[in-house]
Amino acid sequence: MNVFVASELSGPRIRPVYDRPADPAGLKEALRTLGGGVSVITAGEGEERSGATVTSATALSVDPPRMLVSLNRSSSTWPVVERYGHFAVNVIGADHQEVAHRFAGVGGLRGSERYLGAEWTRLASGAPVLEDAVAALDCEVEEAIERHSHVIVIGRVLSIRLGGGNSLLYQNGRYHSVA
Questions:
Q1: 102 and 111 in contact (C-beta within 8 Å)?
Q2: Cα gap 54→8, rounded to integer Å
Q3: pTM for the complete prediction?
Q4: CA atoms within 13 A on the CB side of 40
Q5: Which of 4, 5, 94, 147 is most buried, judging by how many CB atoms fall within 10 Å of its CB?
Q6: Which residues neighbour 94 within 8 Å (Cβ) at sequence distance 6 or greater?
Q7: CA 121/CA 164 separation, integer angstroms
Q8: How many Å apart are CA 135 and CA 57, to the nearest integer?
Q9: Percentage above 90 pLDDT, the chain
Q10: In sequence order, which residues have a C-beta less than 8 Å from that of residue 90 and are 6 or more positions away?
């Protein structure tokens, strides 16, 4: 087994700024450094609509087309997704920062109040879809796996809308855009 001392390695020396315990606060702090694409998850109908801003939406597979979203079980969004059996992943762009704030609950907005100030439509599942999203993936819940504080929701992609543009990114508590 080869053992290297830091001074023997070529290139810049990498040192942690400080160590953190493996607890919820430490994990949150570490994950804030990981930039992620911003999506708004939407579900429901009429006054029963809800949604959340997430960086946890990703493709589970492309063949068959499946999306994976992680939702907090105590959020107002999960019960609506569970009740309606659908959700949309709205990939948002730099001009949608206000939408991201509303769906993150900034200003205390909840439920259908979060939909104000933007244009919405519906695709195959009936989930609300942002008209001018960079992309929107309309999904039917295929499976929900409850683990700890969250639910891992697997969605069968029913339809896709491509709007164009660049997605909004989030890192270290701030939004960023790719020019």
A1: no
A2: 42
A3: 0.86
A4: 33
A5: 94
A6: 165, 166, 168, 175, 177
A7: 17
A8: 13
A9: 75
A10: 39, 40, 41, 42, 129, 130, 133, 135, 136
- Check if the beta carbon of residue 35 is closer than 8 Å to that of residue 44: no
Whole-number Å distance between alpha carbons of 160 and 25: 36
| Model pLDDT, residue 31 | 85
Sign for the pseudo-dihedral over CA of 103, 104, 106, 110: positive
In the structure, what pLDDT confidence band is assigned to residue 178 with cuts at 50, 70 and 90? confident
Give whichever of 13-17, 32-36, 61-65 has the largest mean pLDDT. Answer: 61-65
DSSP letters, 6-65, are GGGSSS-----S----SSHHHHHHHHHTS-EE-EEEEE-SGGG-EEEEES--EEEEETTE
Single-letter amino acid, residue 48: E
Tell the residue number behind the tokens 């429901």, with chain if given.
44
Place of tokens 């023997």: 8
Mean pLDDT value across residues 133-161: 98
